[in-house]
Amino acid sequence: xxxxxxxxNVALYKPLFNxxxxxxxxxxxxxxxxxxxxxxxxxxxxxxPLGSQAIKSQKVLQELQPKIKEIQEKYKNEKEKLxxxxxxxxxxxxINPLSGCLPLLIQLPxxxxxxxxxxxxxxxxQLSSSLYSFVPxxxxxxxxxxxxxxxxxxxxxxxxxxxxxxxxLVWPSIILVLLTGIVQFFQTKMTSPKALxxxxxxxxxxxxxxxxKQMLYFFPVFTVFILWNLPAAIxxxxxxxxxxxxxxxxxxxxxxxxxxxx
Length: 262
Known about the structure:
two-stranded antiparallel sheet; mainly alpha
């Protein structure tokens, strides 16, 4: 376990932490939010080929929905034949239906590392012990983004007055989190297969469409739920990476559409 923790620190946490401090120090204005946005864009550029492959697979899956529907109608009472025919279709089209999950799985350890960076990176001991020798050693980081959003705060902040505790809402963080959920909705909608009209078949097909519709709304709500009690810096990262994904999907979908014969 110690080996995995050390590997995580060496391979992800320290590089991301030092990259963030470098960007914070050398970008004009020393805005921590701008540094996070630039770091996020750099990460997305590195992962661009992998993301593109996943998006293309999702697009192919979307275009295969009529064929999948035909298979489901043909073998609606024969589960084994339905599974076999569906797998044969995937093999013929050379796609992996799970490939869309790969970028998310790769991003998960990055998000965990960034969570540690944003949660502990403001502490003085981290600034003195986790920086590389070639990185300027600084005494503190100003956590504000454009002078408005304190990226070290969550949507609710605990206040202690006269020995009693209370929670207060931090509206700049709340707006950032809600905006992230909205962008997540559009990003999920772009990759959701279009519902097939005029279907009278019940069973696996209808269940699949119901699940797709539920996931369209589940992901944005789940995103808001997760980000609510995390530092606003995580929400800014999530918002930036989602906007990047939307633009990447738009470019790939447009390129695919233009490549089709007229």
